[in-house]
Amino acid sequence: MSLLSRLFGGGGGDKTAPAPADPVVYNGYRIFPEPMKDGAHWRIAARIEADVDGETRTHQLIRADTLNSEDAAKEASVAKARVMIDQQGHGIFR
Predict the structure, then answer these.
(1) 8 in a structural domain
(2) What is the C-alpha separation between 60 and 52, in angstroms, rounded?
(3) Is the residue at 54 inside a domain?
């Protein structure tokens, strides 16, 4: 494969995205831990969803904190999301 093909997205490779994680339900909110790969580390990130007035609302949580393993980042992502829910409630969707 040529260098240009690799640079511009040509060629093979597994392009399938990882399966989404099952949500953690907390006080009526659904927390989807979605840590982001950042070099050799994992950045804390999660998607928070709730049904508000018949509409599904979503908030994307991304923190500057990084951890060495994906599993640790998933756990920390859920913990940070819980704290945000406790502090702000539906205010996170503004």
Answers:
(1) no
(2) 16
(3) yes
